[in-house]
Each structure stands twice: as C-alpha cells, then as structure tokens.
Amino acid sequence: MIRALYTAATGLEAQQLNIDVIANNLANVGTSGFKKSRADFQDLLYQTSREPGGPATSTTQTSTGIQVGLGVRPAAVQRINAQGDFNQTTNPLDVAIGGDGYFQVTLPDGSTAFTRAGAFKLDSTGSVVTSSGDPLSPQINIPTGAESIQIGDDGTVSVTLAGQSAPSQVGQIQTARFANPSGLRAEGGNLFTETDSSGPPQLGTPGQDGLGQLTQGFLEGSNVSVVEELVAMISGQRAYEINSRAISAADEMLRTAASIGR
After folding, report:
1. What are phi and psi of 3, to 5 degrees?
2. Are residues 130 and 55 in the same domain?
3. Confidence band of 262 (pLDDT split at 50, 70, 90)
4. CB atoms inside a 10 Å sphere around CB 200
5. Could you give the 3-state DSSP secondary structure of residue 138?
6. Of 32, 102, 109, 223, which sits most exposed with the smallest number of CB within 10 A?
7. Global pTM value
8. Which pLDDT score, from 0 to 100, does residue 261 have?
9. Do 211 and 172 lie in a common domain?
10. What's the rounded Cα separation, in Å, for the pair 237 and 140?
C-alpha cells in the first residue's frame, strides 16, 4: 500500500508536466512559426517477486512471473516540426518557409540563432531584422528610397529604386537545416540555437538540396490544433484525477489496516 502511494505520486507529477506542455502549446496558438510539443513518458523500474521463466517445479517454468511497476517518469518533451498554415499578410517583409529550413539571425553577442518566424522589419539603417531587432544573417540592407521589395522563392532580395525600371539585387537569404531539428534548444523569442543533438546547420539556397522555398507576403502560423490540445488536456486532467484517487484508496487501506485490533 505504501508502494501505491509513491507510484501514484509519480503519475501526478507526470500529468502536471503534461498539462504544462499543453498549456504552453495553447498559449502560443497565435505565435508565428511556433511548433507544438508533446510530453513523452517511460515506466520506472519493476519490483520482481517471481522472475518470468523461473522454475515453478522441477520440470516446469513460470510463464509470466510477478513484476510490479513503480510508476512513471518524463522521458522527453518532443517538438513536433509539422508545417503550420500560411497566413497572407501582403507585407513585403513577411516571409514564410514552405518545407524544411530556418532563417539565420545574429544575436547581440555575435552568436547565430535560428527561427521559423519570418515577420521581418527594417531598422534605422535599413537592415532587415526580426521583431527583437536581431539582424538577418547574411545581413541584408534595403537602400533608402526603395519603392518596392521583392523576395524570390530562392531567397533573392531585390528592390526597385526611384527612377529605375528594373529591380536591383541587394542580397540573398540563406536558410539552414538540421539532421535533428527537434534537438535544437528553444531560447524563447521564436529563436533556437544549435546543440550536439541537433547537429551543425547545413546552409543552402531555399528551394535547393531539400530546403523549403520562400513565399513573400505570408507568415507561417503555429501548428497547434486547439481541438487536439483541448482533448489532450481533458485526458491529462482525468489521468491526474485518477492518480489522486489511487492515493486516496491507498490511504484508506492504510487507515483500515491501522485500525485493526483497536
């Protein structure tokens, strides 16, 4: 009965993490480029009273044995990198990646981060930056007085200046892919950084070597399905409730055992 108390307690902790992950998914349902996560769990060690396949008699073996599990533990929080829906904005600096790939940005400390959120802006010098002011890498500058900005499927950035009929190329957007994008470290602010698990970034031109093409005037929305998350939340809530009832049942059994002989 004491074992049941601790086993059910691990179930409560696991479902608390599950609800935390679901809550973060729902909170970011409107975040551009957000990728939902899923909590994965593993069962804990087993207490073996009779070994499976052990001798039952001198000529027979036990078929299953007796093993009692000791609960559950979190194994991973898996990021699901499925494509989000495209939302048209008509803003020339909004860019969506259709397929695999990440934009590269330079952080204030000089390191490189990666993002799927293509809601770019211009700073006071004409550089293309993120909403947090981090410049796109390689850096792209839009000349003052540019009448229009065109971003091609392959990342070519061109502008039309006053008095010119033909656009002039001012930069090239490169994207990066990873062997294991789920291994990237989430830093907040729609940014990810490289880890040993993700592997090094493989840079290339959008639309080539498996990298997704770019679409100007669109933003990739979150891939969170509100209905799926609500169903998962209800399931997690019920699992939490059932584990709490298991604790109550074990406590009642202990109370009954303690009252014997009174």
Report:
1. -60, -40
2. no
3. low
4. 10
5. coil
6. 109
7. 0.88
8. 63
9. yes
10. 48
- Summarize the confidence of residues 165-172 as an average pLDDT: 89
E strand or H helix that includes residue 242: helix 226-258
CA gap 10, 23 in Å, rounded: 20
- Are 7 and 35 in the same domain? yes
Of 5-14, 122-131, 250-259, where does mean pLDDT reach its minimum? 250-259
Quickly tell me which residue has 């060690």 as its tokens. Answer: 45
Please state the φ and ψ torsions of residue 91, each to the nearest 5 degrees: -80, 125
Q: Which of 91, 75, 76 is nearest to 128 (CA)?
A: 91
- Residue 1 burial (CB count, 10 A): 13
Residues 129 and 43 in one domain: no
The DSSP annotation for 149-191 comes to: EEE-TT-EEEEEETT-SS-EEEEE--EEE-S-GGGSEEEETTE
> For residues 58 and 114, is the Cβ–Cβ distance under 8 A?
no
Judgement on whether residues 141 and 200 belong to the same structural domain of the protein: yes
The residues, any chain, with a CB within 8 Å of residue 212's CB and separated by 6 or more, are 97, 98, 99, 100, 101, 175, 206
Average pLDDT over residues 165-186: 93
The three state secondary structure string of 16-84 is: HHHHHHHHHHHHCCCCCCCCCEEEEEEECCEEEEECCCCECCCCCECCCCEEEECCEEEEEEEECCCCC
Domain that holds residue 145: 86-220
Nearest-angstrom CA–CA distance, 59 and 69: 29
Whether residues 173 and 232 fall in one domain: no
Contact yes or no for 249/132 (Cβ under 8 A): no
- Same domain for 215 and 228, yes or no, is no
Which 3 state secondary structure label does DSSP give 202?
strand
Asked if residue 203 and residue 163 are part of one domain, the reply reads: yes
